[in-house]
Write a structure and sequence with these properties.
mainly alpha; 63% helix
Amino acid sequence: PAARTQTTTAGRMGCFGVVKSCMDLLIRMVGPLFVCIALTIIGSVIYVHFSEILPYHVGSLTSPVGSIHVLWSLFIIFNIGYNYSMTIFTPPGSPPPSEVPLEEIQEAHSNDVRKGGNFSRYCKTCKAHKPPRTHHCHICKACVLRMDHHCPWMANCVGFQNHRFFYLFLLYVWIGTLYVAILGVEPVWESESRSRHPSSSPADRLSLLMAFVLSLSVWLAISLMLAWHTYLVVSGQTTIEFYYNTTQSRLAHNKGTVYHNPYNLGRARNWQNFFGASRYYLQWALPSSRLPP
């Protein structure tokens, strides 16, 4: 019976491993498709914004008011495109070669397992040392420094070197979609009621409505993601570490003690460690290719 149980368990684990590998391969393959979908959505909203929404409010785009809106729109679009491309093409960060002998790393891993420790310093897949806050991405098949998550919309992992670009991408998408949604309320309402544009074509009305609905929907979704990642930044943790810290806090509470995240240095220091020191106010939000601190 014991041998049969072990065989059944091994069979289940083998099936789970095959399914997991297939899902990882699927996510890795659809990544470029998700990027194309995202670029198509962004491009469509930008087109409607300049061809329908802005002319409705300012008339001529070359007028003084129109020029201000155009410059502001181009600033947002540039930052969205820049941070999106930097998130995609910037490697998330891989650990440097370790000078610690492999035998010592494996022994430390065995000790962690015996003690019930978490986040071992040894990666069984890469067969290499893992620095603190490093995790193995089974989709990218590599260890990632300060890994937050694998994002299919970026076709890349979000980690130490590109997390800042990912955050700024969320921020500017949040600003841009809110801007388009606010400006789009009146023309969409007028277009649907046909009180101001009775001769507008069904295609124009549909494009206005779709741009407004997409902008509002994306804004609502991005609001949650931006709030979540802002909390992670100011608390000095990643998404993976959040779940670990939550578990450790609960265990410490059950023991009558308090668990402290060793990487939480306070909101101001955490923010500075994430974006780097800024000489000017809001400099952290401007495009930059400098490496993380």
